[in-house]
Every structure is written in structure tokens, then in C-alpha cells.
Amino acid sequence: MDKQCKRDTFNKAKVELHVHLDGAFKLSTILDVAKRRGITLPATEDEFRIVCTMSEPSSLTNFLSKFEQYMHVIAGDREAIKRVAYEFVETKAKEGVVYVEVRYSPHLLANSVEPIPWKQEKGDLTPDEVVRLVNQGLKEGEKAFGIKARSILCCMRHMPNWSMEVIEMCKKYRNDGVVAIDLAGDESLNCVANPGHRKAYEEAVRSNIHRTVHAGEAGPASVVREAVEVLKAERIGHGYNTVNDQQLYKKLLEEKMHFEMCPYSSKITGACDPDFTKHPLNRFKKDNANFSLNTDDPLIFDSSLETDYQIAKEYMSFTEEDFKRVNINAAKSCFLPEKEKKELLHLLYQDYGMIEKTSF
Predict the structure, then answer these.
(1) Where found in the cell (predicted)?
(2) Residue 334's closest CA among 8, 9, 1, 18?
(3) Which CATH number applies to 14-352?
(4) d(Cα 180, Cα 152) in Å, to the nearest integer?
(5) Cis-peptide, bond into residue 220, ω within 30° of zero
(6) How far is CA 281 from the centre of its chain?
């Protein structure tokens, strides 16, 4: 399968809900910023691609190590952070995406907090300023490329002391591009037992901040149960292992829980069987579950959204009608306000030929 083939599997409007900003930088931009900042990296883009990307099934640990190869170039640099947000919107527009929710940890893109493995030196860029810079870049990208982009702020499982600050930023910027809170990182860490994460999500519920959680990717179905029952997640990031708890799986199917599926990512990180015909997504599709198709970290996987659509078509027998349903489900499950959500659905219905085209 050609990961970088032309966009023709589903050449209609798409919605993407699970993609990490820091896993979607352009290699050429990283090299350009490194040159400006006097940071030494492999000389050519092709050489640097080998260092930063993965093409064979490996482990989540190896995957996470890739961030250390390039994050120090972008983190803490105001100009670079705004630029990567702007370029992200450009990339998604080229992929046919009309609405995207991009997620990131403000703390990991700042250089004023500890501990961050790739930090070169302590600086003055705060997580709050990171959010403002990303918001600016996304807004300018929206105007330039004609699509809509919103952001989700990530708590990190290994840093519960950051979580209350994350939810406060979600509240502060809820009318300025931020639509939800997320919890990412190593699922082996018992996030539910940690008061830092629990308090942040309790505050999210009280403040009507939308909630998603990475769960059931590398971790067991019990992490998904905790995400739903304790953290009150409205969507699940990945969630493949939910099928191993039939009671929970049936319950979430009935509740129309949305699962943010990333098939190519799940192969390369070792989260799922590398044989896509055995992927849990086949079960979700058969059971008419509510899910979307997403890239996760396209820089590290050297992929695009077309990669995941091709996988779904080639190995999981997705038809054009299946792709339409996936994107409509994504739009219905997105974290936009109801009025904007209806407008997004109308746009999809028009593009899919489901209603006559009208103007707003």
C-alpha cells in the first residue's frame, strides 16, 4: 500500500477528530527552524525523515522516543509554534478536511516548565502563551485555506500536577478556539487514582467543557471503563481493546459513544495486530459503532489521512457509503457548539449529494 498516494479513496469533505499537533509538523519546517535557531540536525530532509519516522510495527516506547528527535527545535519558539499551527491547517485543507480538532499539550510546547526531556534551556514561554500562539496560527490558517480548525488541550498521565492548569486554560479559551480537554500518555499509569486528573475532569464537567480520553489503545478495556465512568469522557481516543469487555462494549455501543480510530497508527505503535483484517475496527464497523478515521501522528508515521482511508478500503471493505457515514458520525460527535455543528453537517450533506445545495 502506498502511504502517500493521491487523494482519491474518498474525494469528498472529511472531518478529523484525533490528530496531535506535535505529531504533525512538516519536516521541512523543523529543518528550517533549526537552521534559524542554530540547532544541528541531519543535513537533508530525507536523512532527517529516517530519524523521525517509523514504517514497521514497533512499540509505543519507540514511538514516543521519536518526539525527542525534533521537539526541542519547535518547543519554546514563539514564531515556530504559530507557524506549525498555520501549516497544519494548510495540510488538512489539502487532504480534503473541512473541520479538524487538533490536540496538543501546552506544557510540552512551552520551555518554562519541568520536566521536559527535550528542553535545551529554561525559557519564558508559558503554556498559556503557547495556547494563544496556536490559536493565532489556526485562525490565520482558517482564513487562508477556508476550513475550520479547533483545538483540544491535553493533560499528560505522567504529570498530574499540570492538569488543573490545563482545564483552566480550556475555560479561558473556550470562546477562542479551544473546544475540549484530553488525557494522553502511558495508559499503564493509574490516572483515575490520581486526584490531579480526577479534579481536572470534575471541573470540566462542572464547567461544561467537552472531554475525551486516550484509552484502550495499549491499555486494557478497564482503562476505557475508567475514562467513561470516572472521568466522564464523551469520546474515546482509540479504544480498540474495548471489545475485550463485552459488557462494556455493548453498553458503549448502545450509548453511541464515539471512538476516534487511527488504524495505521495502531499498527505501527504495536497497539493492534499488524494484520488489518484482524483489526478491532472490523468489529466496530460490523456492529455499526460510532467512530471516525484519523491520522494521530502523521509526521512520525510518514502518512496522511489518505493512508488510513486506503487501509479501510483495502483491508476492511469500506465503501463510499461507509466513508460518508464515518464522517457524518464524526461531525455529529465533534465538540463544536450546536449551531456550528449543524452547519458542518449541512456542508457534508451537500457535498455528499444528500440534499440540494443552498447558500447560507
Answers:
(1) Cell junction; Cell membrane; Cytoplasmic vesicle lumen; Lysosome
(2) 18
(3) 3.20.20.140
(4) 5
(5) no
(6) 17
| C-alpha distances out from residue 163 to 87, 150, 269, 355, Å | 28, 20, 25, 43
Edge-to-edge strands, sheet with 14-20: 14-20, 97-104, 148-156, 178-184, 210-215, 235-238, 258-261, 290-293
Residue 189 has pLDDT above 80, yes or no: no
Domains of the chain by residue range: 14-352
Closest CA to 73 of 113, 119, 105, 104: 119
The answer to whether the CB of 173 falls within 8 A of the CB of 180 is no
CB atoms within 10 A of CB 75: 23
Does residue 56 have an active-site annotation? no
* CA neighbor of 281 nearest in space, from 223, 222, 238: 238
φ, ψ at 20 (rounded to 5°): -95, 130
Q: Which of 101, 187, 217, 306 is the catalytic position?
A: 217
- Taking only Cα atoms into account, the Rg of the chain, rounded to an integer number of angstroms, comes to 19
Q: Which residue has the higher pLDDT, 84 or 8?
A: 84
- Say what the pTM is: 0.96
Q: Among 28, 45, 23, 87, which Cα is nearest to 269's?
A: 23
Q: Does 204 or 61 have the greater pLDDT score?
A: 204
Closest CA to 145 of 179, 101, 95: 95
Per residue in 73-108, pLDDT (tens digit) is: 999 999 999 999 999 999 999 999 999 999 999 999
- Exposure on the CB side of residue 13, measured as CA atoms within 13 A: 20
Summarize pLDDT for 324-359 with one digit per residue, the tens. 999 999 999 999 999 999 999 999 999 999 986 544
Q: How does 22-33 read in b/e, with b if 16+ C-beta sit within 10 Å?
A: bbbbbbebbbeb
